[in-house]
Design goal:
The protein is α/β, with parallel strands linked by helices and 489 residues long. The chain has a domain of 277 residues: Amidase signature (AS) domain (Amidase signature (AS) enzymes). 37% of the residues lie in helices and 12% in strands. The chain contains 15 helices and 11 strands. Strands 1-3-2-4-6-5-10-11-9-7-8 form an 11-stranded mixed beta sheet, with helices on both faces. Helix 7 runs antiparallel to helix 15 and helix 9 packs across helix 12. The longest helix is centred in the C-terminal third of the chain and has 22 residues. It is globular, with a radius of gyration of 21 Å. The protein starts with 7 loop residues before the first helix and ends in a 13-residue tail after the last helix. GO terms for molecular function: ATP binding; glutaminyl-tRNA synthase (glutamine-hydrolyzing) activity; transferase activity. It is an enzyme of class 6 (ligase).
């Protein structure tokens, strides 16, 4: 029997009742991570010693404490741009190298308090900049469904680890679709919550007004349970909101009755793979059968979202990455004779090509004479995009779109065409610009047997509706196929 056939609560109950030990569950996850990493390159660090010690500690605590946490004994993987005390946090970059933070991110503290066991750090595009996970200084991650294809990015390592059944849950980060897009390409659930719902304390910054920690899982119910654990106000992060965190799992129901689902037909046009279009349109009809009312909505400024996003994101990246200079931590070029030369050589040798490209773009749009023409204009368009969603949600409770314009593409297919690569985020970055929650849900397979995902988005703080819709769909139309590269533990 595979324990990942159980949802998180069932697995937790098996551990608490001593049907299986936390040590056994964690050991199986560690074994799978080590065995499959040669094929997938999904992990940059596997913490066997720490994870086994933590699992043994949890097993010994059974019966000594009045209660156990909601994630008691559950193995979890963490994207390598989220700080875990004592573990490597390289952000997939040479410039940070073997940096080991002396503290846990708030999300990690809350996972530990709930009983989770962190088994390692996952590979990612350098500083979360990419849509294919080919920009990592430590090599690309491969898609478990076809190892010649990308898993999506930038959180491709976490997505691959869940899709390959190494762990039931993983954390990633989402700045323009970096949880939802790899979730779609790997055939799993990927949630980006409302901006401010999960603390960014301990998340290495890329675009501070866009970044958000997100959750990968095999089931909507599992994602819901983890969200309830890590969401909420954090005094370490002034951008978190003091908004009540519900028991998301308790609100799940097996239908969509009473939900008005909006369809922006303009987003189903040019550039969308025909197989993706058919799969998402099939999902729309499935929701009609589940009791949802289907309504037409308009997002007139969506066509500007890619341009708007890549101005704002690169501007913020240029500012955030200025701190990596070889002085305080991380990599330093040793052959420089003068301070300015050391700065230049460190950044030249330490950053990869995509990060350099985005720093240069961001510096340009913030420079004198161009700030008003580009950055200020992009912020004005961002306001219009928010207003579009506000008007749309007056007519509906959630909106459905494709997650990615295509299924997973081949490794190397888009590396020589940055604009073509950037268009992989065409359906997802608009959600980050508006600050609203979004989720990707598997909705079928292509003729080549590759997963296809649909995206659902809702109002600020209304993750409950997204999780309910995801749960209802997966019950009615489960993706029963598994990747050829998958752990059977």
């Amino acid at each position: 029997m595979s324990y990942l056939d159980c949802d998180l609560e069932e697995l937790r109950q098996k551990i608490v009742s001593r049907e299986v030990s936390a040590r056994e569950i964690v050991a199986r996850a560690l074994d799978a991570a080590e065995k499959l990493n040669e094929t997938l390159n999904a992990f940059l660090a596997i913490d066997r010693r720490g994870a086994e010690a933590r699992a043994a500690e949890l097993d010994q605590s059974l019966g000594k404490l009045p209660a156990t946490g909601p994630l008691f004994g559950i193995p979890i993987a963490i994207k390598d741009n989220i700080c875990v005390r004592g573990l490597q946090t390289s952000c997939g970059s040479r410039i940070l190298g073997d940096y080991h933070p002396p503290y846990d991110a708030t999300a990690i503290e809350r996972l530990r308090a709930a009983g989770a066991v962190i088994i390692g750090k996952t590979n990612c595009d350098e500083f979360a900049m990419g849509s294919s996970n080919e920009n990592s200084a430590y090599g690309p991650v491969r898609n478990p469904w076809d190892i010649e294809r990308v898993p999506g990015g930038s959180s491709g390592g976490s997505a691959a680890a869940v899709a390959a059944r190494i762990v039931p849950i993983a954390l990633g980060s989402d700045t323009g679709g970096s949880v939802r897009q790899p979730a779609a390409l790997c055939g799993i659930i990927g949630l980006k919550p409302t901006y401010g719902r999960i603390s960014r304390y301990g998340l290495v910054a890329f675009g501070s007004s866009l970044d958000q920690i997100g959750i990968f899982g095999l089931r909507a119910r599992d994602v819901a349970k983890v969200l309830s654990v890590i969401a909420g106000r954090d005094p370490h992060d002034a951008t978190t909101a003091d908004v009540a965190v519900p028991d998301y799992a308790a609100q799940l129901v097996p239908d969509a009755k009473g939900v008005r689902l909006g369809v922006p037909r303009a987003l189903f046009g040019e550039g969308l793979d025909p197989e993706v279009r058919r799969a998402v349109e099939g999902a729309i009809e499935a929701y009609r059968d589940l009791g949802a009312e289907i309504v037409e909505v308009e997002l007139p400024h969506a066509k500007y979202s890619i341009a708007c996003y890549y101005i704002i994101a690169t501007a913020e990246a240029s500012s955030n990455l200025a701190r990596y200079d070889g002085v305080r931590y991380g990599f330093r070029a040793e052959e420089a004779d003068e301070l300015i030369e050391m700065y230049r050589r460190t950044r030249d040798q330490g950053f990869g090509a995509e990060v350099k490209r985005r720093i240069m773009l961001g510096t340009f749009v913030l420079s004198s004479g161009y700030y008003e023409a580009y950055y200020r204009k992009a912020q004005q368009v961002r306001t219009l995009i928010r207003e579009d969603f506000h008007r749309a949600f007056a007519r509906c409770d959630a909106i459905i779109t494709p997650t990615s314009p295509t299924p997973a593409f081949l490794l190397g297919e888009k590396t020589d065409d940055p604009l073509k690569m950037y268009l992989s985020d065409v359906y997802t970055c608009i959600v980050n610009l508006a600050g609203i929650p979004g989720i990707s849900v598997p909705c079928g397979l292509s003729s080549s047997g590759l997963p296809i995902g649909m995206q659902l988005v809702s109002r600020h703080w209304d993750e409950s509706t997204l999780l309910r819709l995801a749960h209802a769909y997966e019950l009615a139309h489960p993706l029963t196929a598994r990747p050829p590269v998958a752990a059977n533990w």
